[in-house]
Design goal:
- The chain has two domains: 12-146, Rossmann fold, CATH 3.40.50.2300; 155-216, Winged helix-like DNA-binding domain superfamily/Winged helix DNA-binding domain (Arc Repressor Mutant, subunit A), CATH 1.10.10.10.
- 49% of the residues lie in helices and 12% in strands.
- The chain is built from ten helices and five strands, in the order βαβαβαβαβαααααα.
- A five-stranded parallel sheet has the order 2-1-3-4-5, sandwiched between helices.
Amino acid sequence: MTAALGQSSVPRVVVADDQALVRAGFRMILTADGIEVVAEATNGAEAVDAVRRHRPDVVLMDIRMPGTDGLAATRQIMAGRDATPRIIILTTFDLDHYVYAALTAGASGFLLKDVTPEHLVGAVRLVRDGDALLAPSITRRLVERFARGESEPPPDLAGLTKRELEVLALLAQGLSNAELAARLYLSEATVKTHVARILGKLGLRDRVQAVVAAYRTGLVTP
């Protein structure tokens, strides 16, 4: 799993969106909850530069921006040699086809722009910690379509233990570590260990890829 860049307990965020009101609104919501917005960007090129200069934990990345769009910026950021931030894709439409390409490029999650303040704050904190997929109302449709479009063979689950298969199946439902722990009567630390082992054994980058793998292997079905 990609390590978060920030060393403090306060998430550090870059907000990339071409609409000033959206950036201002997100900044106000995040700072009110103690999250530090280290920079704003009006297009993808500015977002890439902001990541290089400020090394944030999370980037809120709009897909549709003039010039370098969010998809191209995500690819550039994730191709960096140093530790990279978690990227949350912002989209207006819940079936925006660019979201699938963004997941392929390395984005860790996605949110609709009409997200509530509570969900926005929770999403930033969860993704910073590598915890959960976002926007549960559209996660299944996005992941299912994304999984069907994969051309590479699905990973082999034979190396996973019975417990790890159980964790992966529940993770594919969008459960957070806390929810997994409650469902399986385990500590969150134990759940995090299981998730890390699953990612390591399957050679996956993050939970997004793990969910896609669960669908592609047939461990879970639509």
